Amino acid sequence: xxxxxxxxxxxxxxxxxxxxxxxxxxxxxxxxxxxxxxxxxxxxxxxxxxxxxxxxxxxxxxxxxxxxxxxxxxxxxxxxxxxxxxxxxxxxxxxxxxxxxxxxxxxxxxxxxxxxxxxxxxxxxxxxxxxxxxxxxxxxxxxxxxxxxxxxxxxxxxxxxxxxxxxxxxxxxxxxxxxxxxxxxxxxxxxxxxxxxxxxxxxxxxxxxxxxxxxxxxxxxxxxxxxxxxxxxxxxxxxxxxxxxxxxxxxxxxxxxxxxxxxxxxxxxxxxxxxxxxxxxxxxxxxxxxxxxxxxxxxxxxxxxxxxxxxxxxxxxxxxxxxxxxxxxxxxxxxxxxxxxxxxxxxxxxxxxxxxxxxxxxxxxxxxxxxxxxxxxxxxxxxxxxxxxxxxxxxxxxxxxxxxxxxxxxxxxxxxxxxxxxxxxxxxxxxxxxxxxxxxxxxxxxxxxxxxxxxxxxxxxxxxxxxxxxxxxxxxxxxxxxxxxxxx
Length: 488
Known about the structure:
Layout: H1 25-56, H2 61-88, H3 104-114, H4 123-154, H5 159-181, H6 183-188, H7 190-193, H8 197-216, H9 236-241, H10 247-256, H11 259-262, H12 267-274, E1 277-279, E2 282-284, H13 286-304, H14 308-315, H15 318-339, H16 344-362, H17 364-383, H18 388-416, H19 428-453, H20 460-487
Antiparallel strand pairs: 1-2
C-alpha cells in the first residue's frame, strides 16, 4: 500500500495535484478551514445559547433546558431523513455532497446570529422566537453538516489517506471550537470596555457565527474522488434497517451517548460563580480564569493533533488510542478532584494533570472519524451500497441527541441545586455542587464510553483487503457503464 504524503504546513500553497486519489495539501487546507469556520459557528449555539437564555434573557434553567432538550430531539430525528435523501440523490455533474457546501452557509450564519438577539419581549415570546429560528437553522444546518463531514469518505478511496484527512479536518474543527471557547475572555472584558454581556454575545455571534459559516464555504474547493452510484429506490425504513451491517457505527453511537454526562454543565457556571484569583491587589475574575485554564490545558493537546496518525501508528491503532485517552481521563480527573482547585498551587497541579491527560483526549475526534469512514467501506463491501449520507447523519443524530440529553440534565441538575437565573449570587447548594460536577461527571462519562467501545474491531489486514476489493469493484462498474454508454 502506498504511504500517504507527509503534510508540511508551510507548503500548502505549493503542493501539486494529487496522484491516485490522494488529496493535495491546498485542498486539505481549504477543507480544514471550512471545518474551523463551521465549528466556530456551531460552537456559539452548542456552548452559549443556554447561557444567553439564562444569564441575559433571565429564563429559568428548567425552562431553558427542557425547551432545548425537546427541540434538539427533533433536531436529531430529522438527520437520518436528511442523510437518506442525500444518499438517494446524484446531481447531474456526478457529485453527491459537494453542492450542499455553498449557499446554505450564508443562511445558517444569519440564523445563528439572530438567535442571540434580545428582542425585548417577555419570557414566553423570547422562547418562541428562539424556537422558530432554531428550527429553521437546524433544517439548513443538517444538509450542510452531513455533506461537510461526509466529504471525508468521498475525498479519497484510501484508508490511510482518510486517516490523514481526519487528522487535519479535526484540527480545523478543534480550532473552530476553541474560537467559540474564547467567548469567556470577551465576557470578562465587558466591564472594562463599558459594554454588556448582551451586546458582547451578539457581537460574538455575528463574528463567529456568521463569519464562521462564510469561512466554511471554502469546502467548495474539495473534490469527490470515490465514484458514487445511486442505489436502487427502496423504502426509508429499509435504508435505515441496512445500517445494522455497520457494527462500528452502532458501537460508536452507544459509546458517544455518554458524552451527555461530560458536557451537561458548561464550564462557565463553575468559573463565573466559584473561581476568583487574587494576586496582591490584582483580581482575575472567573471568566478570564476560564480562558487561561482552557488555553493551558489545551495547548499540548492541540500540538499533538498534528501528529495524530503517527501516534496512532506507534500505539498500534486508532482504537487503542481512544482506549488510552478515555481510561487516562478517568484516572486523572479522580486525582484532580481530590487535589482541589482552591489555591494557586492546587490550580497549577490540576492544570498540569489536565494538560497531560488532554493530549490523547484531543485525538479522540480524529480517531472516531477515521474509524467511521473505514466503516463506510466495510458497509459497501458487505451490502454493495455506499452510505455516507445515512452514516454521517446518524453521527449527527448522536451529537444532537447528546445535546438534547445535556439540556435535560442541565435543567434537572440546576433545578436540584437551586440555581437562580435572576440572582447575582447563587445559594450554597449550587456552589458546593460545582467542583464535583465540573471534574467528576466527565470521568464517569469516559468510563461508560469504554463499555461498548471495546467491542469495535479495528483490523488493518481486513481494511487493506476491503480497500483492494472495492477498488476492483469500482473499476469494473466504471468499465461496465462506459461500455453501456458506447453501445447506446
